[in-house]
Write a sequence for this structure.
């Protein structure tokens, strides 16, 4: 006999319907029924009488229900008490962020959070989306600022924040560095440093789609994974790169950032930023960060 079996039995006893009880427990009716049957086998008695049209408690089931409910309630109270104790003792939050969010959004967010909730400390972990999401799912992160994938894991809650603005990173002495804006047509024959699609699909696809929209094919001189590496390659005059505007906060000498001018904004909507966390979990510190984020979201978006 285990706690899961008791929860399933109490749920069926409350609903007298396996389908509704299963939905309330977030599981399939077959799985719930299996737990109830295992409990009956462990106890050596039938607790629930089942027919194709009717579900009812047996006399043993009715007698067992009060004790089972008391055990489940006691376990829930015990777990909540210790969760609350842990939250009150330590309000450190583990936040993962992609590089541009770490450079651009997090300094503003942490400044505002310190004013609203000074008791919360944040451990910041910078990495790519493809590495942050598994760490979030495994419980090694409490919150992540990521590029949302096309297919979001059902275990995650995702809050879209805004689209980042793209700019062109050019060598400081490049002929385009003095421009106020740069159009894709200006990059027709200019060597490009391109993000690797396996690790940075959004940045890679942004460049490709912008050139496709202009009826051009990019001249790719080098492919790189890390944003810092991409900017350093631009500084080394190996090419120019289309990057999120917050990349400019990664101070690299010899690189100038120029606003990108496009005829349609549609291709630019490919640098989304979202907050993600485990669905169904309670965490007051994480919720305080999300509240601070939502409160100033319009201001943050204007800076992106």
């Amino acid at each position: 006999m285990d706690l899961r079996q008791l929860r399933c039995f109490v749920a069926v006893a409350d609903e007298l319907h396996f389908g509704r009880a299963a939905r309330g427990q977030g599981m399939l009716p077959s799985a719930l029924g299996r737990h109830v049957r295992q409990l009956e086998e462990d106890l050596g008695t039938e607790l629930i009488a089942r027919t194709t049209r009717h579900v009812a408690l047996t006399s043993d089931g009715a007698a067992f229900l009060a004790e089972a409910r008391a055990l489940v309630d006691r376990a829930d109270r015990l777990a909540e008490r210790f969760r609350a104790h842990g939250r009150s003792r330590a309000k450190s939050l583990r936040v993962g962020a992609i590089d541009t969010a770490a450079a651009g959004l997090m300094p503003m967010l942490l400044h505002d959070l310190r004013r609203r909730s000074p008791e919360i400390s944040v451990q910041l972990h910078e990495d790519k989306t493809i590495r942050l999401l598994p760490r979030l799912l495994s419980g090694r992160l409490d919150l992540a600022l990521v590029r949302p994938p096309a297919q979001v894991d059902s275990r995650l809650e995702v809050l879209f924040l805004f689209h980042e603005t793209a700019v062109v990173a050019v060598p400081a002495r490049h002929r385009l560095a003095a421009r106020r804006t740069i159009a894709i047509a200006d990059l027709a024959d200019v060597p490009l440093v391109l993000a690797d699609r396996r690790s940075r699909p959004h940045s890679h696809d942004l460049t490709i789609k912008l050139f496709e929209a202009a009826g051009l094919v990019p001249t790719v001189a080098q492919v790189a994974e890390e944003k810092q590496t991409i900017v350093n390659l631009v500084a080394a005059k190996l090419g120019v790169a289309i990057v999120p505007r917050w990349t400019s906060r990664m101070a690299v000498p010899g690189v100038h950032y120029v606003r990108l001018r496009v005829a349609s904004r549609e291709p630019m909507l490919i640098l989304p930023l979202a907050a993600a966390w485990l669905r169904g979990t309670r965490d007051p510190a994480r919720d305080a960060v999300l509240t601070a984020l939502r409160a100033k979201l319009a201001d943050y978006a204007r800076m992106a």
